Redox-sensing transcriptional repressor Rex (Sporosarcina limicola), 216 residues
Amino acid sequence: MIEETPKIPQATSKRLPLYYRFLQNFSNAGKKRVSSSELSEAMKIDAATIRRDFSHFGALGRKGYGYDVQYLVNFFRQTLDQDEETDVALIGVGSLGNAFLKYNFQKNHNTRIVVAFDPKAPNEGKEMSGIPVFHPELLEEKIKEYGVELAILAVPSRSAQEMTDQLISMGIKGILNFTPVRLAAPESVRIHTIDLSVELQTLIYFIKTDEKDSQL
């Protein structure tokens, strides 16, 4: 997980996994060094933003040379703790949850769903996409058994806060929330909310704004 400090802005922290992914792509393609302009073109992020983000970590590159690709891959791997696997619990196996199970994250980085919960699952559990799925009645038992500290929340809005309270009481430290509910939690628990409807509305807004600007 990303260790945020007061020196690293939250916006920069959120871009670190993207830098790591694109730098891995450059490394896999055999590229030895890369400039901020090349990263900018590949990632569609302003080059000045990339240089500013990197400056928070000291001298990662050299003027006139650019950045050593393998050095940056190693640096961001260590910064993001990519050498250590993180197990995740999935709460809710509806359409979205089922998509998560089929994708799973370990294919692309160091996180993986190891256990899931859904009201339609039998108490003895069942397997979906190679992942054991249990009824929520076994939540506390299985969270302890699998030792997970992170959860993906993909449940109906009406049960989101109640489920969050349960997870927190069981020692969960981070929740990736895919419900539109703004969840209440103590400061010691990190919650990231991804509201797909809001993201879509934001996209539509920007498209319409771009169309209006092009007509001026």
Notes: Confidence is low (pLDDT under 50) at residues 1-6. The first helix runs from residue 10 to 28.
